[in-house]
């Protein structure tokens, strides 16, 4: 019995088998052969380029690419200039003009998206505060934004943060001071841009950046298993020899 207890007390589970951690090496010639075996139609790459140009608002480039490649855009290219005009107005702080232009494009965009409309009105309030129009800002907040805040708690919280800017002579000391940064204009402009694209039955984000992110993710997964020629410079897509 004592011997059995001693054997049990000193029992050690057998160590798991040692697995080889050596990664496989794929040569440059073999890797390029594999890449060449993947057939991608030119029409697909052309549509990918057109999608990027349209979504990002490069109207002239999209028109030229259409002529050179014969690729038809998914939306009327004339609407790109209108969309970019809205974008420019928001980024310049001319939010009231931007709202009018959005309504000219499609009144349903703001009618069916109360959050977007609130954010545009909030941006108008921010611009009044930025320009030192205190009384006008308070009046605008009370008459236009307060009723919206009563209907939606999240709107009320954003309104309170914005109005808090008026309580600080030095807005850099205000917890909500970032609202006066250019990044806030860009955020609002991006939201409007996405809403216009959605109203035109177009993706709000270009496909190309998503594919590049997927490429980076796939390479990270491969790095754990094999040595292979990888792409480190996405702008040139040049293959680098595997670092063994």
From TrEMBL:
<dbReference type="GO" id="GO:0043161">
    <property type="term" value="P:proteasome-mediated ubiquitin-dependent protein catabolic process"/>
</dbReference>
<dbReference type="InterPro" id="IPR006594">
    <property type="entry name" value="LisH"/>
</dbReference>
<dbReference type="InterPro" id="IPR006595">
    <property type="entry name" value="CTLH_C"/>
</dbReference>
<dbReference type="GO" id="GO:0005634">
    <property type="term" value="C:nucleus"/>
</dbReference>
<dbReference type="Pfam" id="PF10607">
    <property type="entry name" value="CTLH"/>
</dbReference>
<dbReference type="InterPro" id="IPR050618">
    <property type="entry name" value="Ubq-SigPath_Reg"/>
</dbReference>
<dbReference type="Pfam" id="PF08513">
    <property type="entry name" value="LisH"/>
</dbReference>
<dbReference type="GO" id="GO:0005737">
    <property type="term" value="C:cytoplasm"/>
</dbReference>
<feature type="domain" description="CTLH">
    <location>
        <begin position="79"/>
        <end position="136"/>
    </location>
</feature>
<protein>
    <recommendedName>
        <fullName>CTLH domain-containing protein</fullName>
    </recommendedName>
</protein>
<dbReference type="InterPro" id="IPR013144">
    <property type="entry name" value="CRA_dom"/>
</dbReference>
<dbReference type="InterPro" id="IPR024964">
    <property type="entry name" value="CTLH/CRA"/>
</dbReference>
């Amino acid at each position: 019995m004592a011997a059995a207890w001693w054997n049990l007390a000193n029992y050690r589970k057998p160590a798991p088998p040692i697995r080889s951690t050596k990664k496989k090496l794929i040569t440059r010639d073999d890797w390029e052969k594999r890449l060449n075996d993947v057939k991608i139609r030119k029409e697909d790459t052309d549509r990918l380029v057109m999608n990027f140009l349209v979504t990002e608002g490069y109207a002239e480039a999209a028109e030229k690419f259409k002529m050179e490649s014969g690729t038809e855009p998914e939306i009327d290219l004339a609407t790109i200039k209108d969309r970019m005009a809205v974008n420019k107005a928001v980024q310049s702080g001319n939010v009231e003009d931007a709202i009018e232009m959005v309504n000219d494009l499609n009144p349903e965009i703001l009618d069916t998206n109360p959050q977007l409309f609130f954010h545009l009105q909030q941006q108008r309030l921010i611009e009044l505060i930025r320009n030192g129009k205190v009384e006008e800002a308070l009046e605008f907040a009370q008459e236009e934004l307060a009723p919206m805040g009563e209907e939606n708690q999240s709107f009320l919280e954003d309104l309170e943060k914005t109005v808090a800017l008026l309580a600080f002579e030095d807005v850099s000391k205000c917890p909500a001071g970032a609202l006066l940064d250019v990044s806030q204009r860009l955020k609002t402009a991006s939201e409007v841009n996405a809403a216009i694209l959605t109203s035109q039955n177009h993706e709000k984000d270009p496909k190309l950046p998503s594919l590049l992110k997927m490429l980076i993710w796939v390479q990270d997964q491969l790095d754990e298993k094999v040595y292979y020629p990888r792409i480190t410079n996405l702008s040139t897509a040049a293959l680098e020899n595997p670092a063994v």
